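W.,

You were right to be curious about this one. When I first looked at the sequence I had no strong expectations either way, so I just let the prediction run and decided to look at it fresh. Below is the sequence, 270 residues in total, followed by the output.
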Amino acid sequence: MNSKRRRSLPTEARRTSPQSLVSSRTSSVAWLRNALNHGWSHSLRRSSILLTLLAVPACNRTPRAVPAGNSAERASTVQTGVRWLLGPTPDADLLHADASEASLQTQFGARAVRAESVYTGEGFSEYGTILFPGDSTLRLAIVWEDTVRRARPAYVYVTGRKVTWRLYPGVGIGTDLKTLETLNGRAFDLAGFGWDYSGTTSSFQAGRLDSLWTRNGVLGNAVLLRLDPVRAAPQDSLTSQVLGDRTFSSAHRAMQALNPQVYQILVRPR
């Protein structure tokens, strides 16, 4: 699409280099909002805009310890020992639906919050915020509903094999398909691999995760997970059985054998 449609960003957003933008591939905030409001499968069939695909290095997945003085550590692990992005109760969540960039600066300190443009695809950039930009275990990106005041998160996403944020009851980057089934109490549905919506969860089939991640009466619409068979190539015989614009059950024999892992999490704060 014509780049002239790109929004004019304020100085603090324009100063970032292309290499420091949160996403290097196309996405759509509108698509995400629709998906999180009405359900993933509804949005997938009604939109041609691509969901963000972030480049994720195949690096060491073992989380490193956070210094004792880290503000995120104090905020979300004092009682539970877990860094909850979405916790067992709203009080345990890292941030909430009424958050703003200003409130995050007050809570975590100015150095932990950086205004930065987030490229969202089709020639558009949204006004966004990076939280904990200097820590690969905590870094996450926020796109705002109110882009003038930088308030009310439209969605929060995390990516990168070192990120340690968790979603109750224990889902995080690196969680595999079989573990998700166990936490959900049953099989779930996800997209095939090798295309724009590759590995995105579409339904937890009214399982436990659906009930925990419900917003506005729509089962499971508070969270989107993206999984990837990290140890398989597209030409592998197993991967070829679960490729493309189709919905597969996690119980599919090839899915079970590949046992893909979560590499990106998108959350709508409550």
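Here's what jumped out at me. The first strand starts at residue 84 and ends at 86. And, maybe more interesting for your project: Residues 29-38 form the longest helix (10 residues).

Coffee later to discuss?

I.
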